[in-house]
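Figure S7 source data.
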Amino acid sequence: MSKKLYIETLGCAMNTRDSEHMIAELHDKEDYDVTPNIDEADLILINTCSVREKPVSKLFSEIGVFNKKKKEGAKIGVCGCTASHLGDEVFKRAPEVNFVLGARNVSKITQAVRKDKFISTDIDYDESAYAFSEFRNNPYKAFINISIGCDKKCTYCIVPHTRGEEISIPADLIVNEARKAAQNGAKEIFLLGQNVNNYGRRFSMSTHEKMDFSDLLNRVSEVEGVERIRFTSPHPLHMDDKFLETFVNNPKVCKSMHMPLQSGSTSLLEKMKRGYTKEWFLNRALKLRALCPDVSISTDIIVGFPGESEADFQDTLDVMEQVKFEQIFSFKYSPRPLTKAAEFTDQVESEVASKRLQILQDKQEKILDEISKTRLNKEYMVYFEELRSNGMLAGKSDNNALVQIKGKEEWLGKTMRIKITNPKRLSLYGEVVF
Ligand code: SAH
Ligand code: SF4
Ligand code: F3S
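C-alpha cells for the predicted FE3-S4 cluster complex:
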C-alpha cells in the first residue's frame, strides 16, 4: 500500500506549481499518494508564503495543531518561502518539524523525506533545468514555470530574499512541457514567473539563444493543441510596445492583463523602487485599452506604504478612476524582515492604512457594479475547467471573467459560447448559446 501525503499550499501560483512538483516527485520516487485527511498521513507538508506577516505568524500555531492530529511516526515538512527566510529558526521554534525545504530547493524533496532531520534553504540553488516528474491538479489548465527568482528588489518585498536571483528556464523545456500538457488535454497554458516579461534576462546556460517574452509567447502559441495562453506576473516597467502588440495580436494570448500598480504616486513608486511613474503606468494601460477594447486589466495595490500621504493615496484612487480595473488585489502594507522599507522611519499608522483600504475597496465595488451592468446579454467564449460542489460548471472568458452555468460534466474541458443573463460583481451567470 502506498504512503499518504497531506499537503497544504499557501501563497501564489508559483507555490501551487511547486506543490505539484513535490506531489509528483513523491509519487513517482517515494510511492506517496495525496490524502485530504491529516490523521491518516505519513507525511504532512506545509508549503508556506511570507509575503505578508499574517500567514507567517499563523504557521507555528498550525504546526502545533498538525502535530497533535498526526498519527504516530508521521513526518512534518515546512517548505516554500517562509522555509527560505526562517531557515533553521523553524526547528528552534517547532522542534517537531522534520525538515525545512526552501522555495528553490523543491527538487530535494525526495532526499528530505528519507532523513530524520533535513534542511536545505539555499537561495542560489539552480533547479531551472531540473526535469521534475509530472502531476497537475487541474488537467484542463497547465501551470508552467518560465523563470525562478526575482531581480527587482522592490523595497517592500521579501520574494527576492526567498526565491533568489532571477533565472529564465530554457525555452525548449517550456515548449516541451506545453506540448506534453496539451497532449494530456490541457488547452490552456498558464506561464508563471515573478517578472515574466523580463524573460530572457539570464539563463543558466550561456549558450541559450537570445529570446524575450514576446518571442516565447509566440513559440508556445505554435504548440499543437494549445488554445489559450495566460501568464502572471508581468511588470509594468517592461511593457514595451513589442510586448503590448504581441499580447494584442496573438489570438491565443488571452485578453486579460495583470498590471501590478502598487501605488499611483510617482514619488512612492520611486521609494518602492518600481522603476516606473504614474504617467508611464497610465500610458501603458490606456494604450492597451485603445489597442484592445475587450481587454480586462487586473492589478495589485498596497496601501499604507511608509510615507504615504493623503495626496499619494489620492493618486492611487485617480489611477483606479482612469483605468477602471476589472479586478484589484489590495493589501495593507506589511513590514517584512530583510526588506529596506521595514527600516523606513515614516511608517503609516495602522488605522490610517485600514481606512484607506476600506475607501479603496468601496470605490472598486462601485466600479465593478458599473462594469458588470455592461455585461448583461453579452456573449463570451468560455473554457470550462471546474465542476463546483453546488453543481455549477465554472470557467473563464477569454478576458478572465468568471462565468458559471448549470451544465453537464461532459462539458468540462470544452469552450462554449455563453450568453450572460445575470451579471454579478464577482461572477457572471449565463446560458449556452447553441
Ligand atoms: N512579482 C509580483 C508580485 C508578487 S507578490 C509583482 O511584482 O507584481 C504579490 C503582491 O503582494 C504584490 O504585487 C504586492 O502588491 C503584495 N505585497 C508584496 N509585499 C508586500 C508587503 N510587504 N506588504 C503588503 N503587500 C505586499
Ligand atoms: Fe517582489 Fe517586486 Fe520582484 Fe514582484 S517584482 S516579486 S514585488 S521584488
Ligand atoms: Fe508568497 Fe513566495 Fe509566492 S512569498 S506570494 S509564495 S513567491
